[in-house]
Specification:
Layout: H1 2-8, H2 24-29, H3 34-57, H4 67-89, H5 91-97, H6 108-118, H7 123-153, E1 155-156, E2 159-160, H8 177-196
Antiparallel strand pairs: 1-2
Helix pairs in contact: 1-7, 3-4, 3-6, 3-7, 4-5, 4-6
Amino acid sequence: MKLWKDFVKGLWEENPVWVMLLGMCPTLAVTNTATNGFAMGLATTFVLLGGGIVNSAVKNLIPSEVRIPSFIVVIATFVTIVDYTTKAYFPAIAESLSLFIPLIVVNCLILGRSESFASKMPVHRSIADALGMGAGFTLALTSLGVVREVLGFGTVFGSSIPGLTSWFQPWGIMVLPAGAFLSLGVVLGVLNSIRQS
């Protein structure tokens, strides 16, 4: 039961983007398409999971004076794995995400979960937490990417939407940084009104 609660809280109750407003840099920067949002979410989930497992497993071996630097070294290791794997096997995605994959190291979501959860809980609960937070982050980035891609390009995951292209004129602003702020603001407003009702 605790594992399920650890997982589910990241999807809605403590969603990193929609509730805690963490990871705003990649949320605003890479969500101009659903593919980019999904890929960034998966990369972040991998780092959350790897970092959570290792940091939870070694929490009793690390002196408190060097806990944060050691967490960063572990996180940087998993970010490097993601970065090199993406460049080797998915070069188009690596190019579109460019510098944002290496910036996962300083994403406050990653370090925050290692510090507030993985460093205090056993490995199995850290896995559930990391998967839930990663799934919530991926869901948020992908859904924001879908909104921006539909309105900005008239496509979803790069495919045109039947019936939409005949009458819809894409809004160029939606794929620009201003469109990221507008989309996020509207989505957060809708979700907050749902949460309060």
